[in-house]
Amino acid sequence: MTQHELTEDRSADTNAPDVYAAEPIPEGARAEIDRLLASGDLFRYTASEAAPVALLETEFADYMGAKYALAVSSCSAALFLSLKALDLPAGAKVLIPAFTFAAVPSAVVHAGCVPVLVEVGQSLRIDLDDFGRKLTDDIAAVLISHMRGHTSDMDAIMAACTARSIPLIEDAAHSLGTLWSGCKIGTIGKIGCFSFQSYKMVNGGEGGMLITDDPEIAARAVIMSGAYEHNWKKHKGLQNSYANWQNRLPLYNMRMQNLSAAVIRPQIPEIDARVAAGRRNHDYVAERLNQSPWIEVPPALPQEVRAPDSLQFNLIGVESDAQALAFQAAAAERGIALQIFGLAPDNARAFWNWQFLGAAPDLPLTRAMLMRACDLRLPTRLTQADLDSITLALLESAAKTLGAA
Length: 405
Ligand SMILES: *Cc1c(COP(=O)(O)O)cnc(C)c1O
Description:
CATH class of the largest domain: Alpha Beta
Strand order of the largest sheet: 1-9-8-5-4-2-3
Number of domains: 2
Shape: globular
Bound molecules: pyridoxal-5'-phosphate
Largest sheet: 7 strands, mixed
Strand content: 5-15%
């Protein structure tokens, strides 16, 4: 079922909270958009300085505590440019989690590399035994997706990567605002990538950001993103590095335009409040759902302070797919549109649907998890009454459909 079909299914209970509707964009965006429409100044490199995209880059870098930030058209573009900026040889192997969004293996393929999928078990985090087994000498880079904001053990992963001098890219598309031992997620690896697609913490419709402290990586990514001729002079950083790469790298033209930056910039100061609200909502619902014998919300790791805008839980002791689908249908009848990753046809987060990779590898842990893991959007704007109504509907649906087992 697609998200659209799930939304349509809500007709059963029109009082249920709508978890798909977007929030209004902060009022502050309006004047800036009007100004841009009046001047027609939409291209980031037209103005000699202080273009909205350039200002967003500075503000985002400051927020993250990163040296360099590059705004691009999507997180997928940021992931692709990250791999290209690492200058990996053609056919290089890149470790990625087997539980991620199809855009991630796609970016790896697009960059001319070969993804190697690592198991993700019921904790929704990278299985460290499988990671250790697969981190062989021929792995050129590791790309960790903090999928749905669940942070894998970054201490163990960083230690293993550092010991082998393997660069680590963080796909933090869904982790803006998450902390790991007090450190902002996306700043642990060599490169961090973020998304401003509408279902993420900051809604720009589409958009992405790449951050790094490495001036050479920044320079290479900036040029390949489409800073042709001397447009790199409008980026902060070591101008020598840019001059050095001038004309030596292909241009992929994945730039962000000013209107997107105008929509995104006023949301940056709101991130911390959204993160706090998201975490409060998530933890409130999680605590209550965990009282059900059939539902388990994976806990955060001790080092992790999450920034959730969605909630995932495993169905426990549910033997048959039919029973899991009956639970989903009962929830839908109550107006709660949830997805069971592996039971939704063509779900983009189920690795066996990534047919562009060839035959699906054998990943029993990930497969078992996907067949019983439920995915529910939990936007930070939900009210206490919304949360109570969602919780009650899920608990009653579970009791009704799973209790008879
Ligand atoms: C949304 C998402 C992406 C893709 O982001 P886009 O900006 O849509 O390209 C990649 N990885 C994860 C984990 C995501 O949630």
